[in-house]
Q: What sequence folds into this?
């Protein structure tokens, strides 16, 4: 039943349920257990000398890790997957696998801020130059490439400001000049945006978000196509930066219900975004699934759906008014993540760290993560917050 390589005929929903499971190898138990361990024993000298075993040392993998690697590679359409302790660690391993001193990298100006900090910090120290580009550049990325441009880093949509990128056009232009296309695909996951089908060579996911789904683990996943897989796996093995066994087990458990939760988060997110768009306090909705979004046509062409994360721009309010709105919320927590079952909201301002584009939205920016609470309850919570905001002079 499970563990079969012939899964392409099955739906994604089914493949998420069966992927990486081999009950016959686990005494019939449904789930792969948690394997904790560093040392692996060899039965003979010949086996030891040849390292002729499926598992050779803890940093090279365990049955728990392999189960998630295989399942994620299958659902991503990748040649292989590596697991690391966080989304940022996934970015580090991915970029280390395809950059060297003297290289030039192009990075979207809407990128996740820790990616920018890594590029401007450690990568700069090690001799890699980074140029930030307008996320709307599309095929025009060709004009920004240099002879030593090795990587084009993309993220769609931007995790705060939600600009959409034309990934296929960027990939075609980058590949024509020999560059590797890397994408942070955390917002959509492979279920909503199949990165390797769209021209991405290396895809990064923060499994902390929708894969985990319960705000109780840190996890990063990196997948690669045939071209980039050997270098990615070699880099991962050299760094020995593996994910922990308990987090991997929890991620495997999250995998089984991920599509159901992601579909529901998308429906809830659409309902909440539509309601917020109708509110007089909201100036602009930043959600690519809405026709009002400048990148809607790209989203409609390339994406299979939307997750529960989006932003809004409020008409200008004071800090005191914003605090009155946020501090009294009962169902929305304030925290820098998404993908869990609970709803979150955070204010943000991209202006201080944008370098290729200007961030001037004309109001206060809020990012919403919509969880699995009842939509009417969430709306009532925000409505009460807007009333508090208006009551403050």
A:
């Amino acid at each position: 039943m499970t563990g079969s390589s012939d899964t392409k005929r099955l739906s994604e929903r089914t493949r998420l349920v069966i992927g990486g499971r081999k009950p016959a190898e686990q005494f019939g138990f449904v789930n792969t257990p948690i394997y904790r361990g560093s040392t692996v024993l060899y039965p003979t000298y010949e086996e030891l000398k040849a390292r002729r075993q499926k598992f050779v040392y803890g940093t090279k993998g365990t049955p728990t890790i392999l189960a998630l690697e295989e399942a994620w590679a299958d659902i991503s359409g990748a040649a292989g997957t590596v697991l690391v302790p966080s989304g940022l660690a996934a970015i580090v391993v991915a970029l280390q696998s395809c950059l060297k001193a003297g290289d030039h990298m192009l990075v979207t100006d809407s990128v996740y801020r820790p990616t920018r900090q890594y590029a401007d910090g450690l990568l700069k120290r090690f001799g890699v130059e980074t140029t930030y580009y307008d996320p709307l550049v599309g095929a025009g990325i060709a004009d920004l490439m240099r002879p030593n441009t090795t990587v084009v880093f993309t993220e769609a949509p931007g995790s705060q400001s939600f600009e959409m990128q034309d990934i296929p056009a960027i990939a075609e232009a980058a590949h024509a000049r020999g560059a590797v296309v890397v994408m942070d695909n955390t917002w959509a996951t492979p279920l909503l945006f199949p990165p390797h089908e769209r021209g991405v060579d290396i895809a990064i996911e923060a499994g902390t978000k929708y894969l985990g789904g319960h705000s109780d683990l840190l996890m990063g996943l990196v997948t690669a196509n045939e071209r980039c897989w050997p270098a990615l796996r070699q880099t991962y093995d050299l760094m020995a930066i593996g994910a922990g066994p308990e987090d991997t087990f929890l991620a495997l458990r999250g995998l089984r219900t991920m599509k159901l939760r992601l579909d529901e988060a998308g429906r809830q997110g659409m309902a909440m975004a539509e309601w917020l768009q109708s509110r007089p306090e909201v100036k602009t909705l930043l959600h690519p699934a809405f026709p009002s979004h400048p990148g809607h046509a790209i989203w409609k062409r390339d994406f299979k759906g939307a997750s529960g994360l989006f932003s809004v721009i409020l008409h200008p309010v004071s800090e005191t008014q914003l605090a009155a709105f946020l501090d009294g919320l009962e169902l929305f927590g304030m925290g820098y993540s998404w993908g869990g079952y609970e709803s979150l909201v955070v204010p943000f301002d991209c202006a201080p760290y944008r370098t290729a584009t200007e961030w001037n939205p004309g109001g206060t920016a809020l990012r919403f993560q919509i969880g699995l609470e009842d939509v009417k309850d969430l709306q009532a919570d925000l409505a009460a917050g807007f009333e508090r905001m208006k009551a403050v002079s």
Notes: The first strand starts at residue 80 and ends at 84. The two ends are 65 Å apart (CA to CA).
